[in-house]
Amino acid sequence: QESQLKITLTSNIPKAMLLTAERTQLSQMKLLINKYMMLLPASDSLGTVLDNITLAATNNQLTLSELEPQPSVPNDFYTTVPIKVALSGTYQQLGAFFDQLAHLAYYVYPSNLTINLTPSASTANSQTTDSLDAQMTIMLYSPLMQVPA
Question: How far is residue 70 from each of residues 81, 136, 138, 142, measured CA to CA in Å?
Answer without folding.
Answer: 6, 13, 10, 14
